[in-house]
Design goal:
Elements: H1 2-32, H2 36-62, H3 73-89, H4 94-125, H5 129-164, H6 169-176
The structure holds fe (ii) ion (FE2).
Fe (ii) ion is lined by residues 19, 49, 52, 112, 138, 142.
């Protein structure tokens, strides 16, 4: 039992550091986004991410632990890649730059989804119901964020496809409206 609780705490420390890094990265991604819906999705997720940090603080409280991050190298790598995508995007056309940003952001979401899923399983196993409830709530929001990114990407992909097929700017304007 004690070992599972320790595992859960380590996982939460990792997630806390991941979320803290994201609160710094998401404003840069929002700033780099050209598409207004994508910008909005990043801004919305920034607000959610701040809540995710608060929920993790609460989870530590329920477990009688000090809220403390443990360096999450995976998120550091993903954020580093995100920065590269932002830099490289400056040389790309807006559509390609936005699509690359979405890809980077979905990698982040998938990492978080797996982390929260594992942490929730551990919380359930040791019957830490309040903690599992908190993690469940955040997991739902990460999944919704991923879903939102997929739906923002769809028309952009369609637009990119049409442009490749030789559609004119006027045709594309029709697709956008
Ligand atoms: Fe999050």
């Amino acid at each position: 039992m004690a070992n599972l609780k320790e595992l859960l705490i380590e996982e939460l420390q990792d997630l806390l550091h991941a979320e803290m890094q994201l609160t710094k990265a998401l404003p840069q991604m929002a700033q780099a986004a050209h598409n207004p819906k994508l910008k909005e999705a990043f801004e919305k997720h920034l607000a959610q991410t701040e809540t995710h940090v608060e929920r993790l603080d609460k989870a530590f409280e329920f477990l009688g632990q000090k809220s403390q991050p443990k360096p999450c190298r995976a998120m550091a790598g993903l954020v580093e890649e995100g920065k590269e995508v932002i830099e490289e995007g400056k040389q790309k056309d807006p559509l390609a730059a936005d699509l690359a940003l979405i890809t980077a952001a979905q990698k982040v979401e998938h990492y978080e989804i797996s982390g929260y899923g594992s942490a929730r399983s551990l919380a359930r196993l040791i019957e830490a119901r309040e903690v599992s409830h908190l993690l469940d709530h955040t997991l739902g929001e990460e999944e919704a964020a991923d879903f939102l990114l997929t739906s923002v990407a769809k028309p952009l992909l369609q637009e990119a496809r049409l442009a490749e097929m030789g559609a004119t700017e006027a045709d594309l304007e029709l697709v956008r409206s």
